[in-house]
């Protein structure tokens, strides 16, 4: 019996999420529970008993041991690591070697908060099981197919190239998974469908996927660009930054914090949870209403833009916390778009569910779907495919 377990590790700056999957049973589209053996999270890394990522992974490993599924289990085929930024260097899932780690270290300036945490998780896991194949799966990878016209900013080209200033995109693992799952829902091959994927979680991004290949996405050099998010502003005139520095006397770090952590829904109304915003709107709260309206307006702009980018849209897929759960956001984002062939069915949209489903009216030319994302399953699938050749 060949080893078929894959441990997926998602190391953040202060948390370590893990999930163990049995790839002999996990099948895309078989429902999120199939093949999932166990999962969990170690939080508050750097505080108290969990001094660092080594201590966190030790805790995970002990927990897995208790379930008879430890890191030394002969059933374990590989570890798959989520890595946020692959730059232009990594556009595929990559078997981790010393050389690959050295290359990944060079990318830290592009993701100074995320990549060091990812690297810490990789280092510890490799120490524990140096013999085991370990694979890096990059959040940027799915977007590497964007044509230069979409990936480039209109910035002095030498300066841009010198500092790597271009659009990389993020949430790629989710956009890849959801665009394929949407094709499956329509009983088509990914190559046959053009899809707009709206990943609306705390972070949010849109992508335009033509025949399974990403041709545009809303996040850019960093995850700040694009849609309105829980705490990020999304698109903004870059001159607002000069203005805040010159007139507001703010430092670069203060502006960074303002736009990434204190803006978006939170900055507009004091809440970044769409559930709470919905409750406040029902009570007639004007700040919550305005935050919702700005969020939805931006979303509609991207749907329109990506409709033009794709030329023909077959499906629009909503995913992640807000996309999977907020019928109000879905309805408002696509309201009145009949002229684009987009018609949401109010009844199907209101029904809650945990599996991929259509919410478009039967007369809608464009299929509108709610498709739960599963980044861990996608990382495990890519990892397993790489190590089993
Ligand atoms: P992350 O980006 O952190 O992975 P998620 O994809 O889990 O986030 O999305 C989290 C967000 O989803 C929450 O901040 C909240 O706004 C939203 N959300 C979760 N459940 C619901 C719900 N039932 N209705 C509306 N929004 C929801």
TrEMBL record:
Keyword vocabulary terms for this entry: ATP-binding, Cytoplasm, Kinase, Magnesium, Metal-binding, Nucleotide-binding, Transferase
Source organism per UniProt: Streptomyces palmae
Gene Ontology molecular functions: acetate kinase activity; ATP binding; magnesium ion binding
Name of the protein in question: Acetate kinase
Binding annotation for substrate: 82
Cofactor note: Mg(2+). Can also accept Mn(2+).
Top-level division of the source organism's lineage: Bacteria
Residues the record marks as active site: 139
Quaternary state and interactors: Homodimer.
PANTHER family registered for this protein in UniProt: ACETATE KINASE (PTHR21060), ACETATE KINASE-RELATED (PTHR21060:SF15)
Subcellular locations according to the entry: Cytoplasm
Assigned protein family: Belongs to the acetokinase family.
Reaction equations catalysed: acetate + ATP = acetyl phosphate + ADP
Annotated binding of ATP, by residue: 17, 199-203, 273-275, 321-325
